[in-house]
Write a structure and sequence with these properties.
262 residues, mainly alpha, elongated, disordered N terminus
Length: 262
Amino acid sequence: MGTALPSASSAAHEQLLARLSEEKTIDSLNRLLDRLEVIAFVADALDGFLARANVVAESVAESVSDFKKLTGEETATGDVIGRIPQLARVGVQLADVSATPAFQRLIDSGLIERLGEEKTIDAVKAVLDRLELAAFTLEAIDGFLRRGDTIATALADDVEELKRASQTDFVKLKDVLAALPPLVAAGQTLVKSGMLEPRTVEVLATMGRSAAASYDEAHAAASDEKPMGVLAMLKALRDPDIARVVQFAVRFSKSYGQSLAR
């Protein structure tokens, strides 16, 4: 009876059993079994995704279309997206500037904090509000400096003319200058005295007008007027106008006497 040769399926079966008995194969199978639920979930999700492939494709197509509309040139978002390269370049430039020692010194100097103070902001606003006036002032100063030679020449000519003035003119000028301090002192005294107050000026003006009118009347009647005696003067005191003047003189005398007693 001859020996039977092993079949091909029997050899493959033995080879499979040999691999399954290997330690690393056993570890791999154990790890696979530990994650069997996750593998099943992924398989189900993949099957559902493939089943809804058409719907997902249409949704992606609509999203791409909406994104193209959103990034159109006529939209604000599209303008921002279109400026992304420029923004990126500016960001790089800012990063380069911030890395320089000069920028670090600016940060350490506290200047940025001072610029952020409320009073500094108010001052900057005030300067900006008067920027035209400041520009006009600077232009005027610049024009003055540009014409400095002409102005200096004119001043030199005036000084030369002053030197050529006569001695008499200098004496007169000296007298005027010498009289200025007393005039200033008198003016200050006059202001402090109250003589220039509106009420006082009004009273003095009334007295002055009355004196002028009385002078004119006395001058016109000087040829016909007779001397007044005591009785005539006493009779005149009965006149209400004269009586008011006498009462005013009495009150003035009393007030002035009180001021002398102080």
